[in-house]
Amino acid sequence: MSNWIEVGPVEEIPKLGARVVKTNFGDIAVFRTAEGKVFALRDECPHKKGALSQGIIHGERVTCPLHNWVIELQNGQAVAPDVGCTPKYETKVESGIIYLGSVVTEAA
After folding, report:
1. What pTM was computed for the model?
2. Nearest C-alpha neighbor of 44 from the set 53, 35, 36
3. What is the pLDDT of residues 41-57, one digit of tens each?
4. Residue 97 belongs to what domain range?
5. Could you report how far apart the first and last alpha carbons of the chain are, in Å?
6. Can you tell me the distance from the alpha carbon of 70 to that of 73, in angstroms, rounded to the nearest whole number?
7. What is the 8-class DSSP label of residue 82?
């Protein structure tokens, strides 16, 4: 487990909510969907660097609060017609605790 960062109990992130984790590689937004799935993206929209953690979660997407860009939580990709990507990080939940892993996708 040494490569994983403990975020905290999954219940501390409300459904359709987010929490920001400060790391050596920047702020990471950890999201929880209505279905209870957990995702993590760099807390930065690829458009104008808006804080995705402050956006609206719908399904498995988040809408940036600055200019309404929609970002896929599964891969960090902007939804067409917008183009761009924010890094996505591994997550896992064990015994009700969220862990944050390494980057899965890099920004395009």
Report:
1. 0.92
2. 53
3. 999 999 999 999 999 99
4. 5-105
5. 29
6. 9
7. S
